[in-house]
Amino acid sequence: MAGTEIRTDEGVVIFEGSPHKAKVLYGNLLWTGALALSKFFATSSAAPPVKGRSCLELGAGTGVVGLTLGSMGAEPVFITDNEPELLLLMKKNIEANNLSDRVQTFCLDWADGKSFMQQLPDLVVAAATQQR
Ligand SMILES: C[S@@+](CC[C@H](N)C(=O)[O-])C[C@H]1O[C@@H](n2cnc3c(N)ncnc32)[C@H](O)[C@@H]1O
């Protein structure tokens, strides 16, 4: 899996993939909304506390928000998407940040209730906006 390596302001290492597949995979790219949400959790006094809390990221793509939360002490963190290729990219990003003890991937399609997780997390996050 090829990929550009990016280090966020919060110190999280993210590999992107190519979106240009038979089916375009936008989640292979890091989006500004995800960077903004990561920064919000890391820097804003208005953000809810995350240390020791369970988190679920929907449509996670690269997984940057969940990885940022994991790096801040949230656990367990589930970074989820409905695209199997993105789950592989997220696993690579979990390893790149040495966060496999508290962050894991899960295949979740928000349009398919059968794929939902059984556990109710403390916090649910999701991000998407313009490409960087
Ligand atoms: C524009 S990308 C944003 C990725 C990431 N959240 C970010 O901001 O960098 C949208 C993401 O939503 C995922 N997605 C789209 N439909 C979905 C569905 N029904 N269930 C789960 N994920 C979905 C896509 O695979 C993709 O990873």
Automatic annotation (TrEMBL):
Q: Which InterPro entries match?
A: Methyltransf_16 (IPR019410), SAM-dependent_MTases_sf (IPR029063)
One Pfam annotation, family name? Methyltransf_16
**Which top-level group of life is the source organism from?**
Eukaryota
Coiled-coil segments: none
Q: What is this protein called?
A: Uncharacterized protein
Organism encoding this protein: Durusdinium trenchii
